[in-house]
Every structure is written in structure tokens, then in C-alpha cells.
Amino acid sequence: MSTAVAASEAPQPPRLSTISRMVNTFIAPSQTFTDLKHYTTWTTWIAPWLVTAIFSWMFVAVMAQKIGFEQVSENQIKMAGKRAEQLEKLPPEQRARQMALSVTITKVISFAVPFFGLIFFVIVAAVLMATFNFGVGAEVPFKVALAVVFYAGLPGIVRSLLGIISMLAGVDPEGFIVQNPVATNPAYFMNPADSPVLYSLASSLDVVILWMLVLTALGFSCVSKMNKGTTMGVVFGWYILVTLVGAGFAAVFR
Length: 254
Fold this sequence. Notes:
This protein is mostly helical and about 250 residues long. Helix content is about 75%, strand content about 0%.
């Protein structure tokens, strides 16, 4: 019997339940991603996205109660040096209207974050699939790439939980920055108005984000024939590029 025939007749591993996949993402990620290699459908990504979205909305609900959208919006404006200066020069009535508009935008964006994340993860999956398939010669279907990226994003719930705990513990509302609510990166201890570029670079050294990147690389290694060194290089290479572009925008639009 040929090797190809033997491989095709080899028994597949037992299928994991959705809950087992999500739990194993934290304690035995290789099992989750190996399962995705054999049992991914076009709807596999929905469960991890929905769980992440629920925790995100919980974070926003606590933020609305403990911090307040007005304070969150004001803190955001302080981060943007030029905009803060422009608002201070406006007459009181115009400033009040601008602040009210800013609060409304903050509310909408806060609750819409999971949907922005959905679009972002789809783009990430497409870019990584194209990079691996056309640049490295892998054969990863898009539905599998999509599942890998969404499951690798599950540690995002840890960030939401830590943020909720921090707010319930009594974090200073005036120092609260919604994009960086807990000390998971060096930028948490910095003033973003002092150096937007340095703040952006320091924010990229986030332990939760790095955790997700490692999971993403491990996932693509498990669902393909690529070694971990190759997948790590591709995933972190893209991340470094995006980080540098983000720092450039921070310098220009301060």
C-alpha cells in the first residue's frame, strides 16, 4: 500500500466539542488547532467571536457605570494634543456641542468594537492565508485560516476581565484609557500626550497581544506542514510592520 493511500486511510483524531476547543486554546492549544485542521466548517469562527464579544460588552457596561462615557471621551480628547487645544479655544456653547458629539461617538464605537474586530480578524485571516499559501507554499483553506485567527483571539477575554476587575476595584476615572485599561504593557505607565510615537510602540509590547500572536503562529503550524519557526516569522513580521505603520500615524496625526 502506498504512503498516500495509507495516509488517507489513517484514522482522524476524535472531534472536540466547541467548549473543549475554547478551553484547550488556553491549556492545550495544539489540540484545538489540530482539531480545526480536520473539522473546520464555515461557521466554526462564530463561537469564539461571540464569546469574545460578550466579554467586550460586559467591559463596556462596567465602564459606563464606573467611569462614564463623558469621562472616557474627555480622556480620549486629552490624548490628542491638537484636538484638545482646539476645543479649549472654542466658545462654551460650541465646546459643549463638540463634547456631546464626542460622547455619542464614544458610546457607538464602544458597543460596536466586536463588529470592528470581526472585520479586522477576517482581514488578518485573509492576509495570513495569502502570505502562507503564495509566499511559503502552504495549502491552508480560508475557512481554516479564519477559525485559527478567531480561536487565537480568545485571550482577548482575559484583557476584558482584567479591565472589569480594575474598574470594579476603583481605578482613577481621570487616568482611565479605554484602549489600555490594565498594565499588560509598558505604555500603561506612560502619558500618551508626552510622546505618541513612543506610547504606540510601548503599547505593542502587550502580553495579551503577544500571547495571541504566538497562538496564531502555532495554529497555522498545526493546520499545515509549516514549521513553527516559519509561522512565527511570518506572524511577527506582519505585526512589526503594522506596529511601525501605527507609530508613523501617531507621529503625523498627534
